[in-house]
Structure prediction request, 181 residues.
Amino acid sequence: MTARHGFDYQPFYCEENVWRWCQHPRVRGEEILVAVIANALGMVRCRQQRASGAQPFVDWDYHVVGFARWAGGWSAWDFDSAFGLPASALEYLSGTFSADDAPELRPTFRVMSGALYVRALKSDRSHMRHRDGRWLQEPPEWAAPDAGSHTLEDLIDMERSDPGEVVDLRRLRERLADPPA
Prediction:
């Protein structure tokens, strides 16, 4: 396990990184949204990702990021992004997702409050194992979220109506453009 900007972080475990971020004292009491990002193809194109190396993008099977609303507006918390933490939410969305991508690569977002995400996520980490049981990527040292009501597979299935709301990039931008309360 490593840390990024004082938050628990394990590469390739975005759903758990954000799950732990939602519960961190530095963001407790803030308005928090979580976006689970997926599409029917199972390949979401994200730019400005640290894992991309020399490539301009990474095609994740899914991705999870957090958004916090502070006095200056919404900020994005993508622990895998090259933008840094936190980043302006609208700048993050513009720099990470492109309308020029093929329609099948465009992201869909399941958006929910941080509190709902913490209650909902349940993972046994089986998606991170080879068929023979070896890890695809080393897991975090902390225990997997296992008290939730929805598996990770439920959350990335954008045909499901719950939890949260399923929106496209335009609708997410509109929501995050709201001025601070």
